[in-house]
């Protein structure tokens, strides 16, 4: 049995206002509540727009292995009308091939990434400090095809958040996310319903006991 999910961005903002102390996930040095998660999304949008020059329609690649801040990156880009190309769990040669074909405006990588280029930033720098810029946000970001996902034939398909949220389960399949975030199956069955229901997500990339951070 499935149910249609409302505007997830609006829900996340509402969670921050109404259930802000609820844990979304944990990092080694701090707990990420839903209030802090939304604040990080806003900070990411400000930095992408005001410091890194990302505009509507720009393509941004992510190289990594399931770091929760990649979800922040996705929603921050979504608010700007930009597009995320996630390259998770691929070999260096595969990544290089996709980058050569797609020519993203920026490449952002977590601590597992080893790509070098003039427009490459570490994922941690997206949120390291507050960014005092006012990004230009688009209308109706849910309907934008803002995420490229690999399909069963290893081809890439542009997907909107509306499409991903159209058939979410009543409950997340599990709370644990291992190595990869950006597949249609994991997004629909774990990540998005967890965010909808303000649940705690556990990431293998930052595995730690909740409640021990600052």
What would your notes on this structure say?
The chain has 214 residues and is an alpha/beta fold. The chain has a single domain, classed as ANL, N-terminal domain (Rossmann fold). It has helices spanning 8-18, 34-50, 69-80, 92-102, 161-165, 184-196, and strands spanning 2-3, 23-27, 30-33, 59-64, 83-88, 106-109, 120-122, 145-150, 156-160, 168-169, 176-177, 202-203. The strands form five sheets. The chain has a four-stranded parallel sheet with strand order 5-4-6-7, with helices on both faces. Strand 2 (23-27) and strand 3 (30-33) form a beta hairpin. The N and C termini lie far apart (39 Å). Mean pLDDT is 90; it is low at 1-5 and 209-214.
Order of helices and strands: EHEEHEHEHEEEEHEEHE
Helical segment count: 6
Report the CATH architecture: 3-Layer(aba) Sandwich
Share of β-strand residues: 15-25%
Shape: globular
Number of strands: 12
Oligomerization: single chain
Give the termini distance in whole angstroms: 39 Å
The assigned structural class equals alpha/beta
Instruction: Pick out the low-confidence regions.
Output: 1-5, 209-214
Q: What attributes does this structure have?
A:
214 residues, disordered C terminus, alpha/beta, 32% helix, 6 helices, four-stranded parallel β-sheet, 12 strands, Rossmann fold, disordered N terminus
